[in-house]
Design a protein that fits this description.
11 helices, 477 residues, alpha/beta, 2 domains, 18% strand
Length: 477
């Protein structure tokens, strides 16, 4: 029997979050200095036989003499400009944003009294979270604080007994020394009460000091004692009175209704009756969420089509991009985010503030669900790699549907080769019972010619494309 009353922290998801649809966050920390493989470098550099371990020894020296803490002064953040981060988020079309507050590496990105290992005492010497929140709010963005620090339990435990994580006096950097088995996703030896209390105090401190609109938890929060997990929404919603606040969670770490369910790098097949979120990354790499050497990025088209698919099913997309250790972004990342924002500036009426239609999708990639589940996470923990994206990128002949007020929006994922959009679901005997009075396309003057029969709604494409990647048809009926 549960020790707490979860019903007391169940609440409706606020309207602003339902309407926002798109957010941006930033993986930035000492792991950005080696910029090798991914943000799990801080863990893998201590695993004998791992490519990160070999790379670290060859590049920086042994993990006895040069540990993760020795990256702190190298993360100078000399180009970190929160105003530029805010401007980038606005140009991308995001409505909420924030940096990673604390990853699994015990490095807090705020001015913390709870954790002396933070970005003010080390590294850039700046309150990254606080400065970002101030800049974001000036631009009208809602704020996001993400927490991954439940992973700290066992994170640094090394298979190299000479590693600096075991040296006296280094516990403040790496957490308590616990059995090596604790680094599993679901360890048999769960965290002790002291660890759980410290986990809570870090979240409380950010809530008290910075008043985030969204508190995001990465996976594995379930290893924290239930009463302490419960204390977060109770404190955030009830004690602090954050009625328009949002907590997001993964897997079954929190009960339904206490927050927004978050799927990592995945999707639902059908429209959901509840708001949900996908967190994914701009980085086009097997695992990384942070800056790495020679970074590659997904195209703006892929991001736009993913956003359309998620929104059609009542979800939000929270997209990550990782800056360099100096706090600046790769030019390709900036360009792609600007392209996403340009598309949203033209077509945002089909995204922001919409609700799902009777159906979400039409086309070959309409089916197929996925999540970064325990199995995939196990691959990452045990093998250091995982395939984490599901489904293929939709294209011509694919449609997604959204609704706002009296308008139905049909988002075509490609341009028709024969010059006509054929939407089978909107035929005379389809799921749309209203007469079609007019069809328009943002960026194109006037109405588009169309016919409707039992086979579908057939809309003549305009002579020129108003944008790239996806094309919005507004149905007035």
């Amino acid at each position: 029997m549960s020790k707490v009353d979860w019903n007391s922290v169940k609440k409706e998801v606020p309207e602003w979050f339902r309407d926002a649809k798109f957010g941006l966050f930033f993986h930035w920390g000492p792991y950005s200095v080696p910029a090798y493989q991914d943000e799990w470098y801080s863990r893998r550099m201590y695993e004998k036989g791992n490519p990160c371990y070999r790379h670290h020894e060859e590049t920086f020296g042994s993990v006895h003499d040069f540990g993760y803490k020795d990256f702190y002064p190298m993360m100078k953040g000399e180009k970190f400009d929160p105003g530029e981060w805010a401007a980038l988020a606005v140009r991308s079309g995001a409505k909420y944003a924030g940096p990673v507050s604390e990853h699994a590496d015990n490095f807090a990105m705020w001015d913390s009294r709870v954790n002396p290992v933070n970005s003010v005492n080390f590294g850039p010497g700046r309150d990254v979270l606080g400065e970002c929140f101030e800049a974001f709010r000036k631009e009208g963005l809602r704020t996001l604080a993400t927490f991954h620090h439940q992973w700290l339990w066992g994170w640094f435990m090394s298979s190299d007994v000479e590693a600096d994580v075991y040296l006296p006096g280094n516990e403040k950097y790496y957490g308590p020394i616990v059995p090596l088995e604790a680094n599993r996703a679901n360890p048999h030896c769960g965290p002790d009460r002291k660890f759980c209390e410290n986990w809570k105090e870090k979240v409380y401190e950010v809530i008290d000091k910075y008043d985030p609109d969204v508190v995001y938890f990465d996976s594995r929060a379930v290893i924290i004692d239930e009463d302490i997990r419960f204390s977060i929404p109770d404190y955030f919603y009830n004690t602090k009175g954050k009625k328009d606040g949002v907590i997001t969670y993964k897997w079954e770490d929190y009960p339904k209704g206490t927050g927004v369910f978050d799927i990592e790098c995945g999707r639902f097949t059908e429209p959901q009756p509840f708001p949900w979120q996908v967190d994914d990354r701009l980085e086009d790499h097997p695992t990384t969420w942070s800056m790495v050497e020679n970074p590659k990025y997904r195209s703006s088209g892929r991001i736009i089509r993913q956003l359309c698919d998620i929104v059609s099913k009542n979800g939000n997309l929270l997209l990550n991009v990782g800056p360099y250790a100096d706090g600046s972004f790769h030019p390709d990342a900036v360009r792609i985010l600007n392209e996403v924002g340009e598309w949203l500036a033209l077509n945002g009426e089909a995204i922001y503030g919409t609700t799902p239609f009777t159906i979400a999708a039409e086309g070959r990639t309409a089916a197929g669900e996925g999540n970064y589940d325990a199995g995939k996470l196990g691959q990452q923990v045990d093998l250091g790699r995982a395939i984490d994206r599901s489904g293929s990128d939709p294209s011509e002949g694919e449609f997604r549907f959204t609704v706002k007020n009296d308008a139905l929006y049909v988002i075509a994922m490609g341009w028709p080769e024969d010059g006509t959009f054929h939407i089978r679901a909107l035929g005379n005997s389809g799921v749309y019972e209203r007469p079609v009075e007019a069809v328009t396309m943002p960026g194109c003057p006037g109405s588009l010619a169309f016919t409707r029969d039992a086979e579908g709604l057939h809309v003549t494409a305009p002579d020129r494309r108003p944008c790239k990647s996806a094309y919005v048809l507004k149905i007035n009926g």
